[in-house]
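hi! just following up on the protien thing from before. the input was this:
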Amino acid sequence: MKPAQIETFFRLLTQDREIPRTELEYINPYTLLVAVVLSAQATDVSVNKATEPLFKIVDSPQQMVALGETRLKGFIKTIGLFNTKAKNVIALSETLVEKYGGAVPKTREELEALPGVGRKTANVVLNVAFGEPTIAVDTHIFRVGNRTGLAPGKTPREVEDKLVKVVPKKYMLHAHHWLILHGRYICVARKPKCPECPVRQVCEYKAKSTLEDFALGQTKLAKPKPAAKPKRAVKAKRAAKPKRAAPRAA
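and the predicted 3d structure came back as:
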């Protein structure tokens, strides 16, 4: 995608949603960090349902450590991989208390050193909590980057590096959320909603859907079955030989 197209791409996204924000519910940088860790391979909706009662009693690493792993599992058991996530949340909370006095560090290197925190999670925290112009590439952004031609790449890191290079500076701060929300609600995986897509005019996706596709349920017409080959004549079965009568008892 050419620079002029990219400029138009983001300008159109801003018209559709001027100031995007994360759909994860949080109170402060610490609860944001916890929510993002819990959101791995889970939906924001499922995470919010679990954290709503949790964050009413826990909003600091000290309180999380006091809560303990077993009780934490009770709050997040509806989220996938909750056992591993509970272990990581307690471990990272202990690290924050011991090493940072309960504060969330503001560098990617320090964040990625925490248990259960990878590059994507670190980028989300840096962007949302601390206003850094980072781009966290999840499945939605990876799909949008490749499908639209905005930032093709074979790995999330390749897509991230290309986005950082091509996204105009004035859009960088919110680029992550514009792209993730676009992928979540419009440029969806199976049936992209091209007719209502705000960036349709610059998108390079060749197999764009149409209103007619949606009217038909996007079902493909079944290919006609080939004519059946004539069956060979079945040879008449030979007449069965009459069975011999059983000998009478003497």
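The CA atoms of residues 78 and 212 lie 39 Å apart.
Residues 218-231, 233-240, 242-250 have pLDDT under 50 and may be disordered.
cheers
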